Amino acid sequence: MEHVLIVIPAYNEERTISAVITDLRRYVPEYDRVVVNDGSRDNTSHVVDSLGEKQIKLASNLGYGWCLQTGIKYGLLRGYGVIVSFDADGQHRPEDVRGVVQALLDNDADLVIGSRYCEGFPYSGAFERRLGQVLFSHLTRLLIGKRIYDTTSGFKAMRATVCETIVDRSFLDFHIETIIRLGLSGYKIIEQPIIVRERVHGISMHNFTSVFSYPLKTLLLILIAYIDVILLRRKS
Fold this sequence. Notes:
With about 240 residues, the protein is an alpha/beta fold. The chain has helices at about 15-25, 45-50, 65-75, 95-105, 125-145, 160-165, 175-185, 210-235, and strands spanning about 5-10, 30-35, 55, 80-85, 110-115, 155-160, 190-195. Residues about 205-210 have low confidence and may be disordered.
């Protein structure tokens, strides 16, 4: 049986982190957990400490990509075979974790994406966001020959071998550019249906400005990832 670590990036999630940890303990007590506190300015750190959870405290807010990268490095250094990324805002359901990990093992996959859309569910949110989701989904089919329906999911299960190939890439945001990089490198990627709950507390990382900035940033990261893989192929 693989040794599994759940990495929980957290930024200002004092109102949700306790329930997330409590439910993870309930539904997957056999999996280890670590909270990566991304320089939270509220009481997230105190709540996690009061629960006795392992916590990595970053000195400042570095952003989701660097935060998750820290948790992955922690997992690799401690020899975990599977690393799961799981959001701290309460939108992911802890009862779905075992299914995502099992899909990784049963299908001999390298990366499993907990997907809101792979069972034909319609894209949700504002029109601009739905449009971006559809376009990026089709872009994966164009670049790696396989359509990934939920390219922005923060709920993933990854083998350690996959983590080792991406953890030191400073340009990664661990979304579509990572999917494309791994797909181009020959890794097996699949999606596992999950249910995502509505955010009740906290502030989403996506706002009016990000509607325009996020797609541009993502396209740049995809281009860099694509060039990086091509250059590595030429060297080998």
